[in-house]
Amino acid sequence: MDAKAKRRIELDRQIEARKENIIDSAIQEFIENGIDNSKISDIAKRAEVGAATVYRYFETKPKLVVECATKLWHSEMSSLTPLFYPANYNELNGFEKVRQILNTIGSLYKIRPHLLRLLEQFDNYIVRERISKEFLQKYEAGIIDTRVMMLAAVEAGQEDGSIRPDIDAVIFNTTAIHSTIPLIQKLLLRGDVIQSDREIDAKTQIALLIDMELSYIKGSKECVG
User: Fold this and answer.
1) What is the architecture of the domain spanning 62-217?
2) What is the pTM of this model?
3) Among 11, 153, 160, 176, which residue is least crowded by beta carbons within 10 Å?
4) Class of domain 1-59
5) Using an 8 Å Cβ cutoff, are 83 and 91 in contact?
């Protein structure tokens, strides 16, 4: 490899490192101050670069926000793999696998509140900024990747009889996720709005919703636990 090629490789490495530093700094800024309240100048200061450098790599704030949400989702889901797939996961029947997945999602209320708060802000931001679906393809790919484990669990349950054969796995996954995560986000972001909200704690509400979801799909074969 000649000197010019080596310089090109080193330059590419430096560029990628700067981009990652900006993304990591933006994520921390968003977590601490919220997406709407975070300015490019604040992110640049945290990353120890000029605002012009941020714009050089990310032409607009929406583009940076999408990159941050994509990286955060991937990194957090990777760190949660041991919870989604415990050592005995392959020994579980399909119903028990679905329960493991839903209980892990339910536990995000305690173990990853910053993730759910930021995703709620992100959803609101992309709607308000009218970010196109094409622009969100990379982010959506990460969501689809995590959907695969639920679809596989439902299919396994239908094969072993622990899940009803008439359940549409895609519809169940979408509905369960769109019910469970927004409930957790509401409890995290808005808490007790009226007096009666205090009558039932968050953990109980989340557990009840998951039990309802599981009861809906439970098959004729007896399930453990």
Assistant:
1) Orthogonal Bundle (1.10)
2) 0.81
3) 11
4) mainly alpha
5) no
